[in-house]
Amino acid sequence: MFSVVIPLYNKEKSIGNTIQSVLNQTFQDFEIVVVNDGSTDNSLQVVENINDSRIRIINKPNGGVSSARNRGIKEAKYAWIAFLDGDDLWKPNHLSVVYQMLKSFPDKCFFSTSFSYLGNSKLSKNAKGSDVIIIEDYFKESLNDYLVNSTTAVVNKKCFDDVGFFDINYVRGEDLDMWARIASKYQLVKSFEITSIYRLIAENRSDISYVSVRKTFINNIDFNNIKNKYEYEYYRLHIINRIKSYIVKKEWSNLYYLLYKYNFKLLKRKIFVFN
Description:
The protein has 9 helices and 9 strands. By secondary structure, it is α/β, with parallel strands linked by helices. It folds into 2 domains: 2-202, Spore Coat Polysaccharide Biosynthesis Protein SpsA, Chain A (Alpha-Beta Complex); 210-267, no CATH class. Helix 8 (229-249) packs antiparallel against helix 9 (252-261). The model is unreliable at 271-275 (pLDDT under 50).
């Protein structure tokens, strides 16, 4: 039913608990595809010591999380790809909630539940109960909410045939780029039930280290192809937030690069007329 794709790179302290959270699911029809992306610690040994025939390990040279996810998608036996990172967790009902969503919306192929943070008392903005809705405009709703991430997304493989795979050139924001591309063609079905846990404090988190903005999806936003005001505002806010982050972190080269690339215009709200 589900192929659970887990990219793995140097997560020896957390990967065991991550996989166990999948094995503890109340819905048990799944395989686990662990893509070992050239780990240099004991991550691989931890996975090998877990005795369950549904776990498949794919070893590959280090190429980044996008290449690992892409390999997992291509190797998956089932049509439904459920994503989970190697240091995050699912609650026991995660796949069961998704399965019920699939039955309720058989014509849809892009689904997400909701998450909470571990390591911080703050809940995600999308903690609104257990309602399930169709997101009519992904970009509009994303302005005020976290709709999907790499622990909550479930995607039918056919979507990747239409929109392509994760961009291996991005070190950061590759998931945001992917969800936006899928949402541009397919409606997202969203459950507000919290079924996954995102660990803010985790080993080897890529989002806390320095990365050149040239290696993120922020570098390739084409405002000439924006379809409506909500999509424009969605990308504009991502850039503004990245600028704020660079100021706080004193990453001046990234800051100046963004300001130059987008000609300062995005610092001010601009009104466009869309068809």
